[in-house]
Amino acid sequence: MVSRRALVTGASGFIGPRLARRLLDDGWDVALLARSTSRVAEDLRARCTVLPSDVPAAEFGAQLRGLAPDACFHLATHFTGVHTAADIGPLVASNLELGTRLADALAGSPGAAFVNVGTVWQHHDARAYGPSSLYAATKQAFVDVLQFFAECTPLRVVTVELSDTYGPDDPRPKLLPLLVRAAHTGEPLRLSPGQQLVDYTHVDDVVTALLQAVPFAGAGAPSYSVHGTPLPLREFVALVGEVLATEVPVEWGAREYRPREMMTPWTHHPDLPGWVPAIALRDGLTAVLRRAPIG
Questions:
Q1: Nearest CA-CA partner of 72 in 100, 92, 97
Q2: What structural domains and CATH numbers belong to the chain?
Q3: How many CA within 13 A on the CB side of residue 23?
Q4: What are the beta bridge partners of residue 7?
Q5: What whole-number distance in Å separates Cα of residue 15 and Cα of residue 174?
Q6: Judging by beta carbons within 10 Å of its beta carbon (0-12, 13-18, 19+), is residue 61 exposed, middle or buried?
Q7: Among the four residues 67, 80, 120, 184, which has the most C-beta atoms within 10 Å?
Q8: What's the predicted TM-score (pTM) here?
Q9: Cβ contacts of residue 6 below 8 Å, gap of 6+?
Q10: pLDDT, tens digit, for every residue of 117-165?
């Protein structure tokens, strides 16, 4: 039996390593695309082929054409909620240039599926496209680039848009660890008034969705939403406190909402066919917070 071959970008992030391990367990041959300075886990370096992304264009294209993956999962990204001038270069390089080079190199691989990861932040104010930040604008720009490859090359494209994610071993400085730290130290966390809705999906459910998206990659470059059940931020904080069995100290309204705050998660695209989250939010939070020490 011939093994399927996958290429994963963002392997030093949060979702990428989890996806790579699932692919390996499912019998795929896995290659990781990462900067030479990226920290890729030792177990993945031992089990996967690691290709450098920071090489000259000719070498970049040659190594990917030689790999000829059946599916590419593009998770590499640069995120910032409110950008500064210093963020512009990394945003364009990670969210637009890298993906374009990747799609161009793989466009000649017959039947290759390109699974792109988008964000609900592309839909501010419940619009088909309304960028909530420059980050979201660069993500949408790449979706538009992929439309060219889907229509003009053999590359089969699908985009999966995510809301917030969480899970074990999350290295990102996100809200959940900040809440846990506040509960541990007793120092109140300064937050907005807290009326916005938040929507968290467990990383393992996200990985399942990305794998299930592969058969839906096609010339029309469809986009699908993957999400849980939205709830007000205040309710999310209270739920974290219930799981921790302690009150999380918060100063509500101590900071203003961000410019173009996502008050309501907007899923413009249809849900991914056949996918439903398997891990309820309370159950997922309980498993994550009992596994990791507080602080």
A1: 100
A2: 5-165+200-226 (3.40.50.720), 167-198+229-265+278-291 (3.90.25.10)
A3: 32
A4: 31, 72
A5: 14
A6: middle
A7: 120
A8: 0.94
A9: 23, 28, 29, 30, 31, 69, 70, 71, 72, 73
A10: 999 999 988 888 999 999 999 999 999 999 999 999 999 999 999 999 9
